[in-house]
Amino acid sequence: MHDKLEACLKDWGELAEEYQDLERKHKEYRQILEKSIALQKKCLSGVTHQKYRLNVIRKLLKEIEPTCSEEQGELDDLQKDILRRQSQLSQMMESLPKKSGRYLQVIMGNVDVSILDKNTKYQYKEQYESFKLIVNLIGGLCTLLNYFLNYRVLDLVIFFLIVWYYCTLTIRESILIVNGSRIKGWWRLHHFISCVAGGVLLVWPDGSAYREFRDQLMLINVYITFLQYLQYVYQKGCLYRLRSLGERQDMDITIDGFHSWMWKGLGFLLPFLYIGYLTQLYNAYTLYRLCDHPNASWQIPVLASIFLLLGAGNIITTSMTIPMKWVESKSSALKYKFIRLDKYFWNHRRRRISASQEVEDSASQTSDEPQDARGLAADHTKEGMEDSEVHKLQDSDVDDVLIPAEADADVFVDDSAKCEDLKKTD
After folding, report:
1. Per-residue pLDDT, 267
2. Could you tell me the CA-to-CA distances from 226 to 218, 310, 333, 365 in Å, in that order?
3. Which H or E run includes 389?
4. Cβ of 71: how many Cβ atoms within 10 Å?
5. Where are the alpha helices (DSSP H) in 245-268?
6. Does residue 258 register a pLDDT over 60?
7. 116: which of 40, 139, 315, 412 is 20 to 30 A away, CA to CA?
8. Are 160 and 202 in contact (CB under 8 A)?
9. SS3 402
10. Distance, CA of 93 to CA of 179 (rounded, Å)
11. What is the Cα–Cα distance from 104 to 98, expressed in whole angstroms?
């Protein structure tokens, strides 16, 4: 037999054995996948049920008027428990699939875009950051080059790049929002409006009115590219520092404009931001004056309105964020403070129970020794039941649930709180 044929047969035999092992693993994988999907549905249903019941309890609490200090204390404790439970449910939802927004459903259909693996989720976020940086640099270099070349085809390529960039950016941001990133409000709307502006520029015909505005637009685009790169570098450093301190989430992204978490070391960036926003208003003013041009087309008033909206919206949003930061810096230190204190002290309900027990013990000092023995045995029995409940809770893989206290700190629920929650559910 030929040597090469013999080697091929030998390799095929080894490959057949490996395939049998692979087939067994794949069968096991399919079984685990089906169980995982079934558990996902049960968890989603359970979280939805918990949120519904919490809303019902919160509505009932609004109708309650406490008549004594004890009822007021119970009411406050229950409200704190509800806040804690909401944080726990939010933590659970991070590892469960979420529904896509309307924007994604219109573009992609009813497709699940949830990324459940943390490493894959973080890698997708890093790819988003790299995409923004690379496209901005390419667009800035092309704009600077074409300012001197004055080539119409390259102008159209740049405008098409703007449309494609912002369309892709809005889709990626929508996927990131589903997976835990926080970008909303004006800065998300800003990208949709910029996409429309790029489309109007793309269909603006060449002429004397366009030529009068072209050089100004190219120079301002170069400055905007520089400003976005400056923001990217600065925000990247801020997010890294805040994530290290536990004050931001790993899925937070670099976005346009100024935000409340970009407070320290901001003195050099704010002037550049306001200059960039004023250039947008200057674009609107220039286009407004071009409306009376003999060669004016409908693109000119539309672009004037868009640049006016972008500039005014950026200035107002940034100016509103600065005083809001002062207020948040005073209130954030106290917000959810009870959650962090639970790391070091007993649960508030247990503290109240222990205080009442001290009063009862002082009143029962005249009781006889057999009664004290029976009370001690009852206390031991109660502690043993609580320990068994804690072990049951640990066996169900929900012990030490991590609670995000917004932007303050990540804390753990102590065993006493879990015992109280388990008793309420029982």
Report:
1. 64
2. 13, 18, 36, 78
3. helix 369-395
4. 12
5. none
6. no
7. 412
8. yes
9. strand
10. 10
11. 12
Give which of 327, 326, 122, 332 is closest to 240, Cα–Cα.
122
CA 374 from centroid of its chain's CA atoms? 54
pTM: 0.68
Q: Which of 332, 176, 314, 189 is nearest to 254 (CA)?
A: 176
Q: Which residue has the tokens 């004056």?
A: 289
3-class SS string, 213-250: HHHHHHHHHHHHHHHHHHHHHHHHHHHHHHHHCCCCCC
- Distance CA(379)–CA(169), nearest Å, equals 61
Backbone angles phi, psi at 70, to 5 degrees: -65, -45
Measured CA to CA, the distance from residue 94 to residue 322 in angstroms comes to 30
CB atoms within 10 A of CB 278: 13
d(CA 24, CA 21): 5
Report the alpha-carbon distance of residue 138 to residue 148 in Å, rounded.
16
Count of helix runs (H) and strand runs (E) in the chain? 13, 2
Burial of residue 272 (number of CB atoms within 10 Å: 0-12, 13-18, 19+): middle
Tell me the per-residue pLDDT of 358-369, one tens digit each, with 9 for 90 and over: 545 555 554 444
Q: Cα–Cα distance between 417 and 414 in angstroms, integer? A: 6
Q: How far apart are CA 389 and CA 422, in angstroms?
A: 8
